[in-house]
Amino acid sequence: MTDPIAPPRRKDPLKRTRQPTLPPAERSRKAHGLIRPAAEGRFMLPRCGECGTFHYPPREACPACLSFNVKLADAPAGGILASETTIRVPSEVYFRERAPWRAGIVTLDCGPAVIAHLHADCTLGARVTLSLQLDRSGQAVAFAHPATRTPNMADDRQWRELTADPKFRRVLVTDARGPVGLAAVKALKAAGAGTVFAGVPEQWKPFAGEAELRTLEGVSIVPLDVRDDRSVRDLAADIGAKVDILVNTAAHIRPGGVLDRDGLNVVREELETGYLGLARLAQAFGPVMRARGADGVNSAAAWVNILSVYALANLPAYGAWSASQAACLSLGQSLRASFRPGGLKVVNVFTGPLDIEWFQTEPPPKVAPAALARAVVDALQRGLEDVFVGDVAQDIHARFIADPKALERELAG
Amino acid sequence: MPTCDLSGFAEAIASGEIDVVDLTFTLSPDFPVIVMPPEIGQSAPVRIEEISRYDAAGPAWYWNNLSFGEHTGTHFDAPVHWYTGRDLPNNSVDTLPTRHMIAPAIVIDCTREAVADADFLLTVPFLERWETAYGRIPVGAWVLMRTDWSKKDWRAYSNLGDDGAHTPGPDAAAMQWLVIERDILGFGTETIGTDAGQGGHLDPPYPAHHFLHGNGKYGLQCLTNLDRLPVRGSVLVAAPLKVQRGSGSPLRVLALVPKEVA
Ligand SMILES: [Zn+2]
């Protein structure tokens, strides 16, 4: 069993903050195919289209029949831990700092033998479950978990390196004025987060969830208006070094394309809150978060963007807003590269229409704010980077992967 | 020989014989702005974005980009702001007669009433009682409604309920009377609007805007320090920015107050 991690002590101001280091990032281009399933939390392996054989690591041709007809396919994740080793003095700085490090070979029920990082509760010869994870270099690695749950399983040291578990981490939810922000605050507290900073713009305006927000234990309401440079910088000056996870819930959602509107004010407001808000937050909070990527149990770990799935393909009924979401998605990709030296994850949580007032006239199914919040927590706990919440988001994503041009036409109605 | 002693005036200012009272809130991003239903157009709030501060973006200098709606902070309403004033001559801030930028002011103290009732409405009988005590409201004067509202924190200042804002203002008859019977220059308040927070439910809706601007008069709102003005005898300097066809603008409002009446 795993010893539960203890709440981190306050930092010793005389000690230098450990600088983030990264595991080796070199992989073959073939191996990059495993990044998407790892980002989405799917266990996929290359599979031969002719003979059905799974193989690993990814190769150009099927090792069984030499066919080039090889595609990634969902694979059964069960297997046996066939060998294990504890590396006490690794040559890589990243692993040396974290030594001893356990790794092993798992023989999968579906055939291949896979080198995997090991959960401490995996024992030689026992059944294990593999998952693909993104490591701090953003590369896909295999991780073996015990096949059945063990106590404090999520607190495993090697597992926590691959996740951004909110347990004991301090989280900034950038806009808790709306239902999504409030749900996120509650879900993160329930997941064991340390202080949750709940940003509230324009505190002189009352809002529906205010009384509830004020009663939540361990929640600190802070002034934050992502549309205002000074507000964002002032808050970062106060709490920037204490934000381990940032969840950006600020959004300005309005229906219509640009032809449905008089002038650009609403377009500007969407960009001001969405795109420029994200950019302001990144400039104010990003550098110190990146520098704190290896800062102990509550190191900075993740940046979460809540995006519309229509960032992938425009929904003309919300045409201008979809465009602003596409801008946020692109900036999110840029942030992934920017945060990489710190080993932080940028988590994009894509959702279909939410069950909130601005999607009142949209038909169901709609995503409840609480379901979206649960998906955020799940992504952090499992170390995911791309999450599609609800039927609409999953459907749009699948159709986007299959044929973006057909999807564009279909969304135009 | 000039009939006015401007150098004497300047000396009185320099010596403090005439006090210069600032009736202006600091223009800042967190100052409350008028709230409209979210599906219609909104005023942009005040934004101050740094261009450089003795840094790589400008090594020896500090400066900002500013943006704001015309009706943010302590601000001036021109007649063109309301539909009733849309066809008047010189109805925007860029054509405003310069002599209207300096004018006498009287102060109607409604502090007690506003404490008792956030929805307090200033009425004609109230104004008549004021005249009985202090004399007739002069033609061409600013009429300032003092409520001490400017001393509240921002939440109490905007005082938003689920049925809208609750802040004091004039009723329709009082506004019509001031404009027609007394021919004032304009009406000023400490609250976010010249109208009461619930002024949309009066007849006509928003009577201060309706009657002031329909008759070529002006509005001043978000004033502060009205408690430092005498009931009569002060002069306001209120020159809005010369915004092309502007309906209003944030401005610095100064009151000149002779020491003996302060
Ligand atoms: Zn094959």
TrEMBL record, chain A:
InterPro entries: ChsH2_C, ChsH2_Znr, NA-bd_OB-fold, NAD(P)-bd_dom_sf, SDR_fam, Thioester_dehydratase-like. Residues 75-131 form the ChsH2 C-terminal OB-fold domain. It comes from the Bacteria. Residues 38-70 form the ChsH2 rubredoxin-like zinc ribbon domain. Residues 1-31 are annotated as: Disordered. This is NAD(P)-dependent dehydrogenase (Short-subunit alcohol dehydrogenase family)/uncharacterized OB-fold protein. It comes from Pseudochelatococcus lubricantis.
UniProtKB/TrEMBL annotation, chain B:
PANTHER family: CYCLASE-LIKE PROTEIN 2 (PTHR31118). InterPro entries: KFase/CYL, KFase_sf. Pfam families: Cyclase. Gene3D superfamilies: Putative cyclase. SUPFAM superfamilies: Putative cyclase (SSF102198). The lineage of its organism: Bacteria, Pseudomonadati, Pseudomonadota, Alphaproteobacteria, Hyphomicrobiales. Coiled coil: none annotated. This is Kynurenine formamidase.
